[in-house]
Amino acid sequence: MFPARLFPTIETVAHTFFTLTANGILPHHAIETVIRLLSGFALAAVFGVGIGILMGRSRLAEDIFLPLVSICAPIPGLAYTPLFLLWFGLGSFSSILLVGFVSAFPIIFNSWTGVKAVKEIWVRSAHSMGADDRRMFTHVILPGALPYILTGLRLGLAQAWRVLVAVEMLAAVPWGLGWLIFGARKFLNTDAMLAGIVVIAIIGLLLEKLVFQKIENFTVVRWGMVAA
Amino acid sequence: MVPIAIDNVTLEYDTPAGKVTGVKDVSFDIGASEFVCIVGPSGCGKSTLLNVIAGFLAPAAGEIRIAGKTITGHGMDRGVVFQDFAQLFPWRTALGNVSFGLEMKGVAKDERDRIAREQLRLVKLEKFVDSFPHHLSGGMQQRVAIARALAYNPSVLLMDEPFAALDAMTRDDMQTLLADVWRETRKTVIYVTHNVAEAVYLADRVIVMSAHPGTVQADIRIDLPRPRDPLSVEFLECQKQLMRHLGHKVSGNGAAH
Ligand SMILES: Nc1ncnc2c1ncn2[C@@H]1O[C@H](COP(=O)(O)OP(=O)(O)OP(=O)(O)O)[C@@H](O)[C@H]1O
Ligand SMILES: [Mg+2]
Questions:
Q1: What is the structure's pLDDT at A47?
Q2: CATH number, residue B45
Q3: What is the residue range of B167's domain?
Q4: What is the distance between the alpha carbons of residues A134 and A130, in angstroms, rounded to a whole number?
Q5: Ligand 1 close to Cβ of residue B44 (< 6 A)
Q6: A130: nearest CB among B84, B88, B104
Q7: Is pLDDT at B249 greater than 70 in this prediction?
Q8: Distance (Å, whole) CA B104 – CA B152
Q9: What number does the ligand 1 atom closest to the CA of B46 have?
Q10: What domain count does chain B have?
C-alpha cells in the first residue's frame, strides 16, 4: 500500500536530512535558494511598495498602473517563466527577476490599499500642524499604511517561495532547493525531496518569527493598529 | 488675536445618493480674541462649518476671511481639535503627538520636548507622556489632542466638542484650563458644543444653529464677568435664555441640564 521508496519513514527523512546537512549539500542548496529569494523579494519590496504608494497618492499613477497590475497579477507565476528564460537566459539572474516580478503584485495591491486606508483625519491634523508633502509622506502616510504594507510583504514573500522553487528546476541552476527537490524525483529519492521541503518550511518559519513578527511587534502591534 | 469673517458660507456634500447640504448661508463675524461657541442640534452642520473654517472643505458658495484674507485651504494659523478620538497618530506617543507641530516648525528636540511636556502637564497627563494613544481612554486622547493643538501656538483654535467624552469633574477642570489659556494667550476660539452650561461658561458669544440644513438662528452675547460662577443667578438666567433659543421648555426655577 505504502511502498517505502515513495513513503519513507520519518526516521529515514531525518537521517537523510542530517547526512545531507553534515556533508554540506543541503546548506549549499539552501543558501543559493535564500540568496535568490531575498534578492528577488528585495526587488519586489522596493518596487512594489514604491508603485503601490504612488498609486495611492496619485490619480494618474493609479490610472496607469491599476489596469496593468490587475491584468498581470492573476496570471500564475510559472506562466511567465518561459518568457523570462528566453529574455534573460537560463540561470540565477532570470530566476531573481521572475521572483521579483511575480511577488511584487501582492505588495503593490496592499501598499495601494494601505495608502487609501490612511485616515483622512490624520492627514488633516498633520496639515493643520504644518506638515509639508515630504513629511506628510514620511511621518503620516508611511506609518499609517504600514499594517497593510506588512501584510503585502508577507504575501509577497509567500509568492516568492512558490515561484522560486518551481523556477529553480526550469532555469537549469546548478544549486537550489527547488533543483534538489525536482532532481531527486528522477531517482525516486523521496527522502531527499522531503528533506528539501523541511528546509523550506524551516526557513519560512525563521523568516516569519525572526523578521516579520519582530517588525510587527515593534511597530503596528505596539501602536495598537493591529491586535497582538 | 485675529478676526474671522464668515460670509454666506454654504457647503454641500457629494454623496452617491445626491447632494447633502452640510451648512446653508451661514454668516457671522468673530472679533479678534473672541471666544465663540456654536450650539445646535445633532446633524445641523457644526462640524461641517468648523471643517470649512479649518480649510479642509471648500464651500460651494461664500467665503471665509481670517485677518482680512480669504482662506483657500488649511494653514498653521488654525489649530484644530476634532470631534473624533481617532485624530491622534497611533504611531506616536502622547509626547510625540504633542510635539508634532513644533517638529514641523523646525523647533529643536529638547525645546519641543520641554514645551510638549508642559502642555501635557496642563491637561493633567504628565504621567502618560510616553504612552501610545491606544493605551489612553477616549477622554485622555482628547486631552492629548487639545495639548497638541495648543503646543504649536496657532492664533485661532477650532474645537469640536472636545470635552464631550469627559466625566463632569475632568470637564470642569478642562473648561477652567481652557478659559485660563484663552485669557492668557488671547487666541480667537471657535468651540462647538452640545452643552449649554459649557457654552455659557466659556463663550463671549453663542451662535445657535437651526436643525438641518443648518443656518444661524440666533447670535447671543454672554456678558457675564469672568471668571464665571456656574452657580450664580445670572449664569443660570443666561443658560435659560440659551435653552429657550434651542427650543427647550424651560421651567421657572432654573435650567434643567
Ligand atoms: N462626510 C459626509 N458626507 C456626506 N454628508 C455628510 C458628511 N458629513 C456630514 N454630512 C451631513 O451634513 C450634515 C451636517 O453634519 P455635521 O457632522 O456637520 O453635523 P454636526 O452638527 O456636527 O452634528 P453632531 O452634533 O452630531 O456632531 C448632516 O446632516 C450629515 O448628514
Ligand atoms: Mg459634529
A1: 96
A2: 3.40.50.300
A3: 4-77+154-245
A4: 11
A5: yes
A6: B104
A7: no
A8: 9
A9: 21
A10: 1
